[in-house]
Amino acid sequence: MDANVRLRDIPSVDELLRSATVLEAVECFGRPAVTEVLRHVLATTRDEVLKGAEVPPPGAIIATAVAALEENDRSTLRPLFNLTGTVLHTNLGRALLAEAAIDAATAAMREAVALEFDLGSGKRGERDDHLRALICELTGAEDATVVNNNAAAVLLVLNSLAAGREAIVSRGELIEIGGAFRMPDIMLRSGVRLVEVGTTNRTHARDYRDAIGPETGLIMKVHTSNYRIEGFTKEVGARELAGIAHERGLPLVNDLGSGTLADLDRFGLAHEPTVGEAVADGADIVTFSGDKLLGGPQAGFIVGRSAFIEKINCNPMKRALRVDKIRLAALEATLRLYRDPDRLGERLPTMRLLSRPKTDIGDQAARLAPLVERAVKGAFRISVVDCESQIGSGALPLSTVPSVGLALTPHSGGGRTLAELAAAMRRLPMPVIGRIERGSLILDLRCLEDEEGFLANLAHLDPPSEGSSS
């Protein structure tokens, strides 16, 4: 039959819009979207028929259109399984929130809240009041405020306390971290003139003293975050540096970066200076993140002397950098968990995942290995392997946490087959993200808590067949 004749058998948009399935799609996606997709599918169908293809039945055309609508409607901010071995993975959203924080954020989204309203006096209130007393209780600071991330906290502090003046920093602390955050650039944008002291690997107390002059506005100490200098090194500790600053009437700003409120020793992790320790060591201002070791939503905390916090809060930039009611609610709920340190390890996901025993992860790996082997249909060899998980987000960069994972190794095809498998994992309804290492796709199981959901999700895997890349 002539192709032009067969084109007459293709249903029109109006015909398809009368079908029950399409009417249901209209309820879900709206008539304009459904009509547009149907037109696109029909145009593609006509092209294929002109090339000799058979006219598909109306049901097949509708199914293609509905599938396209569902794909277009799917959020790009999709939940996934983080099996990379990095617990606080910046690209995967960093800290998972505690259930208490999720409940508090949900309530704040659903209802009106007393965000800037004092229920006692009936007058205007301050949004910082929801967190101030709690942060001070947990850190020992005189006062506190919060902005939308730690980069904003550093920017605001520098601009408020030393705009147009000099800030002294050790060369070994002029960091660059992910996303091109460079401390010298932040200082430039804040209006502060950077004064570098010491060398990359060694900075002495005399270097700071010699650099102080009439234009000095503050001294800054910066946590080196995602790197360490080892060997022939020297740095001036926070307590000594506070003494040097205060001798000359200058504030010391200590940027902890990740920042933790709890002693990590109790969770079997290497020690990281706590915010409370930084305050006790004499820093006038301490800045740190909310979504890293603290285990909350993205935020930047500023704690320290009341006089300096007051000055920071008077900066017009503060309004541009403030956090909304949803994050404030989640932050408050997260901070309250720290009042009960004995249960923090079970209630705060960050600490729960970091302190998860290797033996438990090993038992899980043994259970999953044969089931994963079945899911990949024999195209890969599955083995249980020891792993070293990372904390991530610049926290304790040289420290790892013993873990266990599954290594998926191709029988043939090498790297290309591994890349195809990783892509197939990313196409799952709930993507699975691992890491390719030493000829295998490694799935580090430290962060896998929903084992049943993982297996149900894996049932949709369409792995590359053996030799598919040859």
From TrEMBL:
<keyword id="KW-0808">Transferase</keyword>
<dbReference type="InterPro" id="IPR015421">
    <property type="entry name" value="PyrdxlP-dep_Trfase_major"/>
</dbReference>
<comment type="pathway">
    <text>Aminoacyl-tRNA biosynthesis; selenocysteinyl-tRNA(Sec) biosynthesis; selenocysteinyl-tRNA(Sec) from L-seryl-tRNA(Sec) (bacterial route): step 1/1.</text>
</comment>
<comment type="similarity">
    <text>Belongs to the SelA family.</text>
</comment>
<dbReference type="InterPro" id="IPR025862">
    <property type="entry name" value="SelA_trans_N_dom"/>
</dbReference>
<dbReference type="InterPro" id="IPR015424">
    <property type="entry name" value="PyrdxlP-dep_Trfase"/>
</dbReference>
<dbReference type="InterPro" id="IPR004534">
    <property type="entry name" value="SelA_trans"/>
</dbReference>
<keyword id="KW-0663">Pyridoxal phosphate</keyword>
<keyword id="KW-0711">Selenium</keyword>
<feature type="modified residue" description="N6-(pyridoxal phosphate)lysine">
    <location>
        <position position="292"/>
    </location>
</feature>
<dbReference type="InterPro" id="IPR018319">
    <property type="entry name" value="SelA-like"/>
</dbReference>
<keyword id="KW-0963">Cytoplasm</keyword>
<keyword id="KW-0648">Protein biosynthesis</keyword>
<comment type="function">
    <text>Converts seryl-tRNA(Sec) to selenocysteinyl-tRNA(Sec) required for selenoprotein biosynthesis.</text>
</comment>
<protein>
    <recommendedName>
        <fullName>L-seryl-tRNA(Sec) selenium transferase</fullName>
        <ecNumber>2.9.1.1</ecNumber>
    </recommendedName>
</protein>
<dbReference type="Pfam" id="PF12390">
    <property type="entry name" value="Se-cys_synth_N"/>
</dbReference>
<feature type="domain" description="L-seryl-tRNA selenium transferase N-terminal">
    <location>
        <begin position="7"/>
        <end position="46"/>
    </location>
</feature>
<dbReference type="GO" id="GO:0004125">
    <property type="term" value="F:L-seryl-tRNA(Sec) selenium transferase activity"/>
</dbReference>
<dbReference type="Pfam" id="PF03841">
    <property type="entry name" value="SelA"/>
</dbReference>
